[in-house]
Write a structure and sequence with these properties.
The protein has about 60 residues and is mainly beta. It has no helices and four strands.
Length: about 60
C-alpha cells in the first residue's frame, strides 16, 4: 500500500523498502535509499559529523 508520490518525503505511512550502503565500510557513513510500491524515492546521507547535532541523517543529499 502506498499513497505518497512526492520525492524526498517521509514514507512512514506507506509500505516501503529501504537500504543503507556503507561504501567505505567504516560503519560511520552511509547512503540511504528508500522506495515505495509507486516508485517514489527518498534518499539521504548518514554522516558521523552530524552526530554532535543529534541528527546524523541528511535528507538534502540526492543520489543521481
Amino acid at each position: 500500500m502506498a499513497t505518497e508520490l512526492r520525492r524526498d518525503l517521509q514514507q512512514n505511512l506507506d509500505d516501503y523498502f529501504s537500504i543503507a550502503i556503507d561504501a567505505t565500510h567504516d560503519r560511520r557513513n552511509a547512503y540511504v535509499f528508500q522506495f515505495n510500491p509507486l516508485g517514489t524515492q527518498f534518499d539521504g546521507l548518514i554522516t558521523e559529523e552530524k552526530r554532535a547535532e543529534e541528527q546524523d541523517f541528511d535528507p538534502g543529499w540526492d543520489g543521481v
